[in-house]
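Researcher: Next sequence.
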Amino acid sequence: MTEPRVPGDESGRASVALPCGESLDPRSVDLGMRDYRCSCGETHAVVLDVHPPSRFLPESLVDVLRETVDTADEFDEFGTPHLMGIAMEEFPEAVVVHDAGDDGTVGYALLWVADFDSRRLHEIVVELVVELMDHAVSHADDADAVASFESQLAEFDVEAFVEEYRRVRDFESAGDRPA
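Model: Next structure:
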């Protein structure tokens, strides 16, 4: 049986157990937050379901992923929850998720916090999407398309891409904090 709570009583407040062992009050996360400076001394990436996947990838690529990736789940289309699901699958001990769907005071339904900072998370997401694309292309019937993709992949530098993408994205969205 649930315990009755007095309005303003903080004893029933949810907290998110972080990968480092510390905890985070989900109400302290705002929609613009991309990193959380933890009391453990590290900076943890923060991602919300309301953050667009273009936080990590160009919108043109997001459009292609939405057209090609079948998402048989409760989300209408491929988006940030899927990107974070891929990251969690690869790093199950380093990314935690908090379901805030029943908490109308926070402004988001899902919160992910990673053991690494937002820049490293960005690199991981790009690496995993490239792996996903490489796997998909390897099943193509067009040998020329496969060879072309492999050639482009050999020249692709994830760190350089992330650096440039973050610089351009932050310039285009003046006032937005680096993610």
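Model: The chain is about 40% helix and 15% strand. Helices lie at 59-68, 80-90, 118-138, 143-155, 158-172.
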